[in-house]
Amino acid sequence: MADADVRSAIAHWAPRFISNGVDHNDFVDTTARVATWAQWLPEWRRTADRAAALAVEAEARGQRCTAGRSWLRAAITRHFAAFVWLLDERLHAEATLRAVEELLEAHRLLDTGAERILAPLGGAEVVGNLRRPPGVTRPPLVLLVPGLDSTKEEFFELEAAFLERGMATLSLDGAGQGEVGLSLPIRHDYEACVSAMLDRVAGRDDVDLGRIGIFGVSLGGYYAARAAAYEPRIRAVVGLSGPYDFGEIWSGLPALTRRTFAVKAGAADDAAARRRADELNLDGVCERIAAPSLFVTGDRDAIVPWRQTERIAGATPEATFVLHPGGNHGCSNLTCEVRPALADWIRERLAAGATAAGSSA
């Protein structure tokens, strides 16, 4: 019988693993080897190492596509090895950085055209992966914002939903996230991360900087709302399963989530973590959002209660709220339905922005 933390991770996030690219057989085989939380990262690392070895062998044979796909498998597997595993921060950091390297190898071999963008912030750097849809001149740009335990390495499949619809994507690691979280702790004013990245790409002519959208999932739904409220360059916003008041739901969060927040916020103890959580509150913020807004969640969300996301929509002028029956956190059990709908919504809003701009000219 697996221990409570292992059971919690599987119960809360199994659909998320699969919908974001973890091979189902890898998931079954790896979790079968894990009985204690201490084993989680080592066993997932073992699975990732096997995929990385296959990538090296395939590239040596000149099989670029096979090698690229194997590196992608290694990166997403290693990301989930570390995502809420913080028993040893050195091993967590090592896995985080290796996942970054492996995804870059995947992009190289799969010829995705991905570009790594670094933007200075607070003595460190915000990092993003920029991808552009082939054959589209100056596409709109959508920023993809992770939550507490997700990173840009988790977004390869999510990016595809936007790229297929003619939009460029810029997947971020901001304060407290992924590789950036190793040097910058969580901050409630995440718009600083978004503004730093938008300043960094300003002046480019290969994306349309007059048509910028933002998509955030889980705590990223809170971050996306903050960014839309304070960053006028954002023209459309989607928040998926985001909290209105993180401190208000603190006691009901999974223990793994609370521990992860404490470490990534740089909190010394649970009381300090709770005080930091209280800072993540949208009171007086959503009212500032002028961009078209869509807030979505599922009525079976066991991490961020759906009423929290509804509250964001209720405080945002002319926002749309969608509640999916049977949907879990991030609607990861309904990805085939929800993800295309959200990408379509952003595409239509940014296309309307282009039409309006053309008319006014």
Secondary-structure map with pairings?
Elements: H1 4-19, H2 24-32, H3 37-60, H4 64-82, H5 89-110, E1 115-121, E2 124-131, E3 140-145, H6 156-163, E4 168-173, H7 191-201, E5 208-217, H8 219-230, E6 234-240, H9 255-264, H10 270-278, E7 293-298, H11 306-315, E8 320-324, H12 335-360
Parallel strand pairs: 3-4, 3-5, 5-6, 6-7, 7-8
Antiparallel strand pairs: 1-2, 2-4
Helix pairs in contact: 3-4, 4-5, 7-8, 9-10
Structure description:
The protein has 2 domains: 1-111, acylaminoacyl peptidase (de novo design (two linked rop proteins)), CATH 1.20.1440; 113-361, Alpha/Beta hydrolase fold, catalytic domain (Rossmann fold). It has 12 helices and 8 strands. It has helices at residues 4-19, 24-32, 37-60, 64-82, 89-110, 156-163, 191-201, 219-230, 255-264, 270-278, 306-315, 335-360, and strands spanning 115-121, 124-131, 140-145, 168-173, 208-217, 234-240, 293-298, 320-324. It has an 8-stranded mixed β-sheet with strand order 1-2-4-3-5-6-7-8, sandwiched between helices. α4 (64-82) runs antiparallel to α5 and α7 packs across α8 (219-230). The longest helix is centred in the last third of the chain and has 26 residues, at 335-360. The chain is globular. It starts with a helix and ends with a helix. The relative contact order is 0.10.
What's this, in brief?
This protein is an alpha/beta fold. 49% of the residues lie in helices and 15% in strands.
Features:
single chain; 361 residues; alpha/beta; de novo design (two linked rop proteins); Rossmann fold; 12 helices; disordered C terminus
